[in-house]
Amino acid sequence: MPTLRDIRKRLKAIQSTKKITAAMKMVAAAKLRKVQDRMLNFRPYASRMQMVLSDLAKVSERESHPLLFLRPRKTVEVLVVTSDKGLCGAFNTNILRMASNYISTLKKDGIEVSYNVVGRKARDYFRRRNVPMRKQWIGLSGRITYTHAQEIAKDIIENYVNETFDEVVIIYNEFKSLISQKVTSLKLLPLGSIEDEGGEREPALTADFLYEPSRAVIFERLLPKYVEIQIYRALLESSAAEEASRMTAMENATKNCSELIKKVTLLANKVRQASITKDLMDIVGGVEALKE
Amino acid sequence: MEKEGKLKLEVVTPYGLILSENVDEVTCSGSEGEFGVLPGHVPFFTTLKIGMLSYKKGTTTKYVFVNWGYAEVGPERVTVLADSAEKSEDIDVERAKAAMKRAEERLRKMEEFDFARATASLERAVTRIQIAEKFR
After folding, report:
1. Which of A11, A219, A241, B38 has the most CB atoms around its CB within 10 Å?
2. Is B68 at the interface with chain A, CB within 8 A?
């Protein structure tokens, strides 16, 4: 039987935990809003770049650029995007499970895997399993800039061109809504068909453009941009998903705390009453004994 | 000049739309050299280098720092997609000066493995400072 003091201590602890989780929820909400703003700001750039690239792709030859060239898959690089911090529900677990599944199917087919990880959680996960990682990017989440995406893209492109690996797949959490994230895998390289995300445009305007330098050179210079855009988007999606996931996790934690507080308060009252009853019994007993 | 002859200038970066204005004339530093655009320009597409974009609106001229990217020119519009861009009044001169110092130091010591990167950042810093000073 715990003493009343023990129970009160526990109650205090739960109450302060509740305060923390509630605050964390608010912080996550604010951060989420920031990331969403960023996504919104990025959209015009991405859609325009994609528009131009898909136009250029139509008139360029498929095998003209190493990033488009299809090679037999011998080594596949997996870029796993997780968070640096925990306390965000199943966010990291989901993505790491998906990544592991994907990697084991690759290995079954006799394909080698090269690891490229974003976020402390993925690094720790693979390190615990003694998996050597080709590259790790730590400390990005929460303050992602386009420059980060550029660095990652540059590294990947260089190694891809040097044939360190023949395909790049990025696995990340997509932000669906506040309450749902979807683990998504996306083939980054070789570039498949470049999708045109539409938007307003004048038809067949690019056909009679003057290109300076040549169209092929421009295409070549802009292609890496496409990889950058995909990576940046994945990073943004992932950090939005992370904050959303943290929000729900913290809300649940706060709820659980409230429940626990109710339960423990009840217990504390019971114990208090029990001890009062016991004391009364003692006194009454003593009085009765004196009477005789 | 007629009103509808005006050029729609847009500068877009991954961080958002920097500029969207109707202007009379645009001058840009393309990878193959500087070029000017007046309304009714031939459809034209070029990559840009680190440099300055200036545009005229009536009698005032304004400057924008543009870091890489490309420009798409049509008869009535100029669209610039850049890695980053800043209006001259938004340039952080202190930061640019610090960046310049850093880059120079690295180049002087020759310990920089990534020579191209150091020169690029030096160029960016110098261009930023030049543009910012022009505005004053």
Report:
1. A241
2. no
- In this complex, which of A49, A208, A221 lies closest to B81 when CB atoms are compared? A49
Any idea what the CATH number is for the domain that residue B119 is in?
1.20.5.440
Q: For chain B, how many structural domains are there in total?
A: 2
Contacts of A83 (CB under 8 A, 6+ apart): A91, A92, A119, A120, A121, A141, A238, A239, A242
* Mean pLDDT value across residues B121-131: 82
Domain boundary among B88, B104, B127: B88
Looking at domain A31-248, what is its CATH homologous superfamily?
ATP synthase, F1 complex, gamma subunit (3.40.1380.10)
Q: For the domain that residue B13 is a member of, what is the CATH number?
A: 2.60.15.10
- A200 touching B (Cβ < 8 Å): no
At A246, the pLDDT band (50, 70, 90 cuts) reads very high
Encode pLDDT of A31-54 as tens digits: 999 999 999 889 888 888 888 887
Please tell me the CATH code under which domain A4-24+250-283 is placed. 1.10.287.80
Contact A108, A71 (CB under 8 A): no
Q: Are B83 and B75 in contact (CB under 8 A)?
A: no
Q: Is B81 on the interface with A (CB under 8 A)?
A: yes
Please tell me which of the candidates A41, A210, A218 has its beta carbon nearest to residue B15.
A41
Q: Between chains, do B43 and A222 touch, taking CB under 8 Å as contact? A: no
Listing DSSP states for A23-52 in one string gives HHHHHHHHHHHHHHHHHHHHHHHHHHHHHH
Window 96-135 of B, Cβ < 8 Å to A: none
Alpha-carbon radius of gyration of chain B = 16
DSSP notation for A223-248: HHHHHHHHHHHHHHHHHHHHHHHHHH
For residues B56 and B78, membership in a common domain is answered with yes
Residue B59 sits in the same domain as residue B96: no
Least confident range from A74-88, B2-16, B44-58: namely: B2-16
Q: Are residues B20 and B41 in the same domain?
A: yes
Q: What is the pLDDT of residue B111?
A: 61
Predicted TM-score (pTM) of the model is 0.84
Domain that holds residue B67: 3-88
